[in-house]
Amino acid sequence: MSNVRPDKGYTRDSRYITTRITADGRDGFPVEPGRYRLVVSRACPWAHRATIVRRLLGLEKALPLAVAGPTHDKRSWTFDLDPDGRDPVLGIERLQEAYFARFPDYDRGITVPAIVEVPSGEVVTNDYAQMTLDLSLEWTAYHREGAPELYPAALRAEIDAVNEEIYTDVNNGVYRAGFAKSQEAYEEAYGALFDRLDRFSERLAGSRYLVGDTITEADIRLFTSLVRFDAVYHGHFKCNRQRLSDMPVLWAYARDLFQTPGFGDTVDFDHIKQHFYVVHSHINPSGIVPAGPDPSGWLEPHGREALGGRPFGDGTPPGPPSPDEAVPPLV
Questions:
Q1: Domain GST C-terminal: where (predicted)?
Q2: DSSP 30
Q3: I want to staple 256 with a disulfide (CB 3.0 to 4.6 A). Which of 14, 44, 59, 304 is the partner?
Q4: How confident is the model at residue 220 (pLDDT cuts 50, 70, 90)?
């Protein structure tokens, strides 16, 4: 979902399907285990946050996962990782089939994450920002024992404010730099991105997490951009003032999260690189996917334990992912 403004700056099309799945079913879609399927790509940073939240909260059985391949064409994400190229539950080859089942004239982007109702085969929502909040607040009856509070009531105003900074300057900022069509638009996005990263470095120098002393929604939203930074954004999107690995505080913070159950065990660097370097042919017309960087540094000690903090608050870490959802280990 994107377009380029006349001044050659990038804006994201944010016209999402805002139907919500709630405990009381007020939009017609009540929380019900097994009724829905969460469709993601491991390449997509927006889908990645839903994958992490689902893992941390232990919703794997209540909300089964469908994983699309890392690349797509102009039509849609495809289920090319599955036998016969079809999702085994929904029976479709392309995610767009679920969108068109509900909206035959749908004219917006076919995006992930999306939640599809299994009985009807229709998309319910692709509103990724609200989706993860609802997993925290509306699906509580199916959270695992020891699930953390990722959006605690007392901190929501601060989390919301930090989330807005993350989205504007980092999550979307890297795209504004990478998709800019003028030097001026690129430099504006580049400057805002690194100014914000510098501010987060200052904030995190004395605090293990962004808000409070536990992992929250804000950390998840920042992590999905940081984990893609050196592999994609630094070169492909020309966000090259520094690599993440050259920013000591953010690099240690990102490694701390990566080594936390529910984070690194949802990262597939091969899928990430395939997506950005193949799909964005206007930026990388050769389609060559870089061999590096070496991902093994993500497993180096981070030393952030010295700052204290309780990753899961009063909760516990999630168990290991099921074999059918495991990502390739770092080598």
A1: 152-276
A2: B
A3: 304
A4: very high
pTM score: 0.96
pLDDT for 60-82, tens place per residue?
999 999 999 999 988 899 999 99
Phi then psi for 205, rounded to 5 degrees?
A: -65, -30
Q: Can you tell me the distance from the alpha carbon of 150 to that of 89, in angstroms, rounded to the nearest whole number?
A: 30
Nearest partner of 240 among 172, 193, 185, 286, judged by Cα = 193
CA distance 115 to 128: 10
> Which residue among the candidates 16, 44, 128, 142 is catalytic per the annotation?
44
Identify the helix (H) or strand (E) that includes residue 66: strand 65-68
Who contacts 10 (Cβ-Cβ below 8 Å, separation ≥6)? 2, 3, 4, 175, 176, 178, 179, 180, 181, 185, 189
Count of Cβ atoms closer than 10 Å to residue 2 Cβ? 12
Domains recognised in the chain with CATH numbers: 2-142 (3.40.30.10), 153-325 (1.20.1050.10)
How many angstroms separate the CA atoms of 225 and 222, rounded? 6
